Write the structure tokens for this entry.
Amino acid sequence: MVKPHPTNSATFTYPPSRLLPLNCTVSVQEVRDPTTLAENGEPCMMVFKRGNTTGLTIGHANTIASFVRHYFNDKEPETSME
């Protein structure tokens, strides 16, 4: 599903039980400046997401950012997090 760049070290094996234990966090530095390369040579992070509708999705993430917006209008104040 994911075609890594040939210079990346292969440190991941998908377990036969299909249950992937989480055992660490990603540093802010790694998020801002990934050391893994995509097939085209661009920096990225390999990510896994499990959703009710799509099931397991595997892919590359780049330009990761987080935004919190506070809206103040005629109604109650609202917060949007993405």
